[in-house]
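In line with agreed milestones, the collection of sequences with tokenised folds has grown. A representative record is reproduced below.
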Amino acid sequence: MLPVRSVLVDFDGTASRVDVTKSLLTAFGDPSWPEYDAAFARGEIGLREAIQAQDRMLDADRDTLVAFALEHGALDPTFAPFVGWCEANALDVAIVSDGFAFYIQPMLRAAGLGHVTVITNEHAWRDGRPDGLRFVNAHPICIGCGTCKMQAVLHHRERGPVAFVGEGQTDRYGALYADITFAKLDLVAFCEADGVPFVPWTNFDDVRRVLEATADLPGPVAPIECPGWTLP
């Protein structure tokens, strides 16, 4: 029997080989959009504030944006087989993303994965153009993130142990509460700083092999207060 019951996967740079949100901003956003990422990294603003401002910088209609995402945002080629393996072993799989959201379902459908659960923000449109984000998977109190990855992990842990797969700063908040974390790129440094045991990974074949071979899980660090905690 596998050691986990659920696998939660970040989207941009994880399930998708590239960060589609940043690709869209580079192609269609105001050139000042990186300033919000820098302010977030310095702790001056929350992610929710940053992505809300960046979303309104996109200067294109919905069809153009989705077409660009489908052309330039291919999924990791090992992700679809990994989802199939999880399903064959009765593991829940869910995408947990704090990006612009609107391109995730089209990209999953194009790969035959339209049935995969997606936990993310809800995109608003006005006359076919971006009009901000609704944070329908946010924490009921904290306003730091748009989609609360801590909350997503805790919800899935009600069924049993959770594996979390990610690569970036917002994944830090899911990694802290998961039973086993797979980390690469920026998430590695956050795990090291937070004392989160992690497994380095390159593709989803690595994740599968480790889950097949693992009997004992590190367990969650689970601080009482998430380090991203932000009150209104």
In short: The chain is about 40% helix and 15% strand. The CA atoms of residues 12 and 115 lie 18 Å apart. Strands lie at 6-9, 92-96, 117-119, 122-126, 129-134, 162-166, 180-183, 198-200. The longest helix spans residues 62-72.
